[in-house]
Structure formats: structure tokens, C-alpha cells
Amino acid sequence: MVKEITPFIIALVLVSCSKNTNEQSVTDSIDSTQVSSTSTDSVATTSLATTKEYTVEQVSELVGTKNDTLYVTNFFATWCGPCIRELPHFVEQQEKRKAEKIKFTYISLDQKQDWGKVLPFATEHKLSGEIVLLDGMNLTPDFFTQNFSQWNGESIPYTFMRKGEKTDETIGMMSKEELERKIQSLN
Q1: What is the average per-residue pLDDT within 98-126?
Q2: For residue 184, how many C-alpha atoms fall within 13 Å in the half-sphere facing its CB?
Q3: What's the CATH architecture for 2-186?
Q4: Which residues is 25 bridged to in the sheet?
Q5: What are phi and psi for residue 156, nearest 5 degrees?
Q6: Residue 25 · residue 5 · CB < 8 Å
Q7: Comparing 136 with 78, which gets the higher pLDDT?
Q8: pLDDT greater than 90 at residue 45
Q9: Omega cis (within 30) before 88
């Protein structure tokens, strides 16, 4: 049953995010430095970003990290219009707050055959740090219910923020002001 539902969820994600969407979303942030080093080898590297494939379990570990660092984790895709429109706000906050205990992680939900597009996209949009490659075909409804209270995987962008026990979830695109307000409220 789960394997029958998963392609439906992925199809909903693909349909719900298009370049013509004006939907506002929530983004989450997670600190990837706290994840164990069981990730696969780096796929590509530039001066600003690296891409690394994670398993569903590794992403669960990433978003579950609880300490005094604020983790901002943004789930996106290179073809997602709202994702593209909100990324400059994340880049600006990441640069502005680089001296603070905040970790920005970007998780690509692009299809595995399109992973080669992710690093050039990251470079074009000035993303820095680690870009996680997650094979959405491996996501199950349990992944969403075990890790998030609001997000069921039906739309992106999605941002998850955690600092200790406090969390914030945003489904859809965030404005510059909304992102800054949410970071300040958790930091």
C-alpha cells in the first residue's frame, strides 16, 4: 500500500510546484554538521556548495538534530518557481548571519536523473554549504509523519527550522520579511 501511495505523493509535489504558482510556502532549516558521516561520497564540489546524496534515514537524522544551533532546512527543486523566488532570501540571511550559530541546509527533491542540474543551479543562485540530494522515490508517508507535524510532502518549497525542542514549519514560499521574522523568533 505504501509503495502505491509514494508515487502519488511525489506526483502531487511535482504538480503543486510550478513556475506560475504564487503560493506562499514555509521553509525549514537543519544543521547538517550534526549528521553522522555515513553519507555517500560527494557528487560534486564548487567554491560555494557541495552536493551529497542522503538516504531517507539520514535526512530524518538531520531534521531531528536538537541542540543550541538553529537549523534551517529548505526542501526545493530546480524546476520549482516558488523555490527559485524565495532562495535569494535564504542566501541573504545565510550571509547576514554567518557569525551566528545557524546552519542552512538545502535538500533537493529533483528526480535522481536530474541531479546533475543541482550543482549548476546552486552556483547560479549563490547557494553555499551542503546541498543534499534526496531520492524522492524512497519517501513514504511515514517519513513525513515521523519528522513533521504539518508537511505531508504534497508541495514545495518547504522549510523546517529547529533549535533545540522549538520548531517552525513553512509550507510554500516565504517572503524576505517572513523568513527573517521566523529566524529571529527561534534564534
Answers
A1: 94
A2: 7
A3: 3-Layer(aba) Sandwich (3.40)
A4: 172
A5: -135, 160
A6: no
A7: 78
A8: no
A9: no
Cα separation values, 48 from 15, 71, 75, 119, Å: 30, 19, 18, 10
Q: What are the structural domain ranges in the chain?
A: 2-186
CA distances from 25 to 48, 96, 132 (A): 25, 22, 20
How far from chain centre, in Å, is Cα 94?
14
65, 25 Cβ separation under 8 angstroms: no
Whats the size of the chain, residue-wise?
187
Does residue 21 carry a pLDDT above 60? no
pTM of the model: 0.76
Strand partners, 53: 133
pLDDT at res. 30:
34
At position 27, the amino acid (one-letter code) is: T
The residue written with cell numbers 545557524 in the block is 102
Asked whether the beta carbons of 144 and 153 are under 8 A apart, the reply is yes
At residue 31, φ and ψ (nearest 5 deg) are: -90, 110
pLDDT band at 28 (very low <50, low <70, confident <90, very high): very low
Residue 130 confidence class, pLDDT cut points 50, 70, 90: confident
- Residue 129: the pLDDT is 85
Indicate the DSSP class of residue 48: S
Instruction: Give, in degrees to the nearest 5, the angle at Cα 32 between 27 and 36.
Output: 140
